Amino acid sequence: MKKYNYILIFLFTIANNSFSQIGKEVNMNDLAKKSDGMFYLYQNSKFTLYTGTAYRLYPNGNKWSVWEIKNGISIRFLMYSNSGKIIQEENFNLKKQYSGKYFSGNEKGDTLNLGVYKKGIKEGKWIIINPDSTKSIIYYKKGVPIIK
Asked: What is the rounded distance in angstroms from the CA atom of residue 5 to the CA atom of residue 13?
């Protein structure tokens, strides 16, 4: 019976340490990005891969950007205008490739680029607003533009 108690305590300790960061929100300045491109949190005299949400603020206290990080890898990045509108959204997979929705806009909330990545490659319909305010629609298949 004593052996099983030690095993349970060991498993609880591992689970507690593994999930202690989940759901936390920290200032991005509290994280370190090492040369491996991973985000680490320094706590208890050691660096550990971070899982949770990190943010940066404008000087006036408004949200500037938010990162969702899993096991040290940024899986979602949002940038906000000073008025609170999302002006950029990037999503990534655990291989650090663009994956999913990509969006960029301006302070007024207008869309400038909108499309989808699959495993780091543009796929499907992309909407691009050109500098002269005209709209281009480009379709991609495995990263290659196609004519429709």
From this structure: 12
pTM over 0.85: no
**140: domain CATH number?**
3.90.930
**What is the Cα Rg of the chain in Å?**
20
| 111: enclosing H helix or E strand | strand 111-118
The number of folded domains in the chain is: 1
Order of strands, edge to edge, in the sheet holding 86-92?
A: 25-27, 52-57, 63-70, 73-80, 86-92, 98-105, 111-118, 121-129, 135-141, 144-146
Give residue-wise pLDDT tens across range 12-54.
Answer: 333 344 334 445 799 999 999 999 999 999 988 999 999 999 9
